[in-house]
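Protein: T-complex 11 family, X-linked 2
Species: Myodes glareolus
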Amino acid sequence: TPWIAEPEGVSVVEAAILGTAVKHQGPEEVKEPDTINMPKTEKTTSKNDSCESENEIQKPKAPSKNHKDNTSSEGSSSASQPVDVSTEDRKAVNEVSKLSIAHETIVNQDFVVKENNNFSESSSLESNFVETMYNAFWDHLKDQLSKTPPDFSCALELISNIKQILVSLLLPRQNRLKNEIEEALDMDLLKQETEHGALNVPHLSNSILNLMAILGIFHVLSLMKMDMVNYTIKNIRPYLQEHSVQYERAKFQELLDKQPNLLDCTTKWMTRAATDITKPLPSTSVSPSSSSGISLFPFPATDPEPPSLTTVLYQGYLNLVLRDHGNEEFPETMLMDKARLQAMRSKLHHLTILASVLLVARSFCCGVLFSSPDFVEKLKSITKDLTKEFSSKPEESMLSVSDQISQEIHQGLKDTGLAVLSSENRASLVGQLRNIAKKENCIRTIIKQRIHLFLKCCLIHGMRESLLDFPGGLLFIEPELAELGWKFVNLMHYNQHVFSPYYAEILKNIISPPNAEKNEEK
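Structure follows.
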């Protein structure tokens, strides 16, 4: 794994990411590239379109069909053959891995490495497979040791693995303990004794039994290893924060030098953002749900000035969390944050439904019950629980919400001694709540527009100013929306700092070149 590998010539940041112990060499080890080497603007024809897969820069390209045909005459046999990965491809994967780990350490303050071997919640098939392989290993080891003469090859391999784990837990300065382990588990000596028949079988058997007795603490050793990795992450985070922009930019430049078409999807993304902005203002209001490219930074049709680079960039950022991309290509500069942005988009969708429900509910109790924070939190909790499957079952979810919310309002009014809702009003409440399941619902549309404008203001004016002028109708979801806004703004501003030179070069080719410099100054 990249946490154990120790390549030559690594920098301080890389070594820290890889868990390698090296002396501090100063910030000069992480240098920002002197120039940004952008690919040529001329379009070139390639067999593999860089935008065909959103995971392209996360893995090396698979061999072409021609390559497969040369290795095998039958398609089925070629498909079953292992793919040879070149040294250059392995290096590229390693670079992307280091870059991803560094990026995650910076943008996610809660980032920790966890074991990925918990099958308690996995399918029975997966659990049975692991158990079968576990038993097969020990049965095989038992058979080898029961032979005459005994075969210690599997046992030696097991001892070697145990030795590697113990050594990996040591600190760089713990040389004495490392020497003791090396002497006690000298694999070369054990192999030589086995080959020459000079192996002390009773002594080795006792050693194997003792080692097998401590195998129960392997899980503890693994946890200790994870703790060591997370301790390293915690200690290198301040250094990464100081040099993260230069480091990520330099690493991305290295990848770009090897793959000149690495920014193709980013170019398409920014082109669409610029197109959204320069669209003429609609003569009539259009529902965001019915339009796939509504601009949050509209320019009048008569405006002679092109939009600024920052404006286009902000429109692009907002498109990432406000639009459903489906199978569209994702910009390469945002791939490491794709899962994060998708989670934000899902959160915004649920907040839209939650705010819509609360707004409707409040209108039917004249705000009396909503003066109680406990009552509001109760309705929020009910709505969140009942709308977990809203994306796949909107009608069913809102049916449950309408019944439960109307009951809570009825009971709340009754408990406070106020007049309960009439049959007509209660039916109207239930009907309006159920209508929220429809995408064209007017209340849902208004809430969605206000959330979008809030995020726009957060990018332009900053979070503090935006929170001082919080949009009406969203006050009941202010804590959740403010938290999401902070994460979104910080992530986008960080991305802008890292990739701004590349964005500037791309956008100069999108907007009018003669006006680009003038508009940037403006």
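Remarks: The radius of gyration is 30 Å.
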